[in-house]
Amino acid sequence: MATPHIAAERGDFAPAVLMPGDPLRAKRIAETVLEDARQVNNVRGMLAYTGTVDGKPLSVMGSGMGQPSITIYATELFSQFDVERIIRVGTCGGLSPKVKVGDVVIGVGAHTESAMNVPRLPGVHFSAVASYNLVAAAAQRAGANAHVGTIISRDHFYLTPEGQNERLARYGVLGVEMEAAALYGVAAEFDKEALAVLTVSDNLLDSSEDMSSAERETLFEKALDAALAAAFC
Ligand code: HPA
């Protein structure tokens, strides 16, 4: 039974879904990690694949950019396709001086200036937190390669209030991305599991740090490996 944004049947998705923002990255992940992958969605080009890893079922699907987009796909996957856990695999801008380009960030909790979670618990500032068992599995696999802590999910990519990045860094916020807080909210709504495992793609407080796209691709593999540990824990 299709939903407005996913033209698939119940049973077409595995209980665990890896979710990069970019649908073409979903395709590349499917080509590199899945055996017997089949495409299960292409509505609006939001490619999704289901296959197996060492005999265990796994799906990979793009989320698009931003909190409204991931909310639509996560809501439909959790409520209509029996998905139990979604692990976002993406990039973040580094904030804390502790994180370097190429490091892995495991987002235990996500601050946000977005209103996406506001209607969930009227009168309450919703705590957007990852599922502890997924955090533990990803952190154990990534070991010393990963930073485990808070992130911020912003709606704006280009507009940042003056001094906010510095202030967030002082509060120990590791990185900036655009989806996790909403994903954690949807998981809470449906009593399901969620996590964001991110690769630091650039440093917002020190733009001298940079790396080649080839280096980025290898470093993305560390995050993918940690995400797979969470998918199958
Ligand atoms: N802002 C938001 N999302 C991001 C960034 C950023 O600077 N870098 C990578 N994803």
Automatic annotation (TrEMBL):
Enzyme Commission number: 2.4.2.1
Regions that span the bilayer: none
A Pfam match: PNP_UDP_1
PROSITE patterns: PNP_UDP_1 (PS01232)
Keywords, ordered alphabetically: Glycosyltransferase, Transferase
GO molecular function: purine-nucleoside phosphorylase activity
Principal EC category: transferase
Listed InterPro entries: DeoD-type, Nucleoside_phosphorylase_CS, Nucleoside_phosphorylase_d, Nucleoside_phosphorylase_sf
Domain Nucleoside phosphorylase: 16-226
Keyword Glycosyltransferase included in the entry's annotation: yes
Cell division among keywords: no
Entry similarity comment: Belongs to the PNP/UDP phosphorylase family.
Protein's recorded name: Purine-nucleoside phosphorylase
Source organism of the structure: Gleimia hominis
Encoding gene, per UniProt annotation: deoD
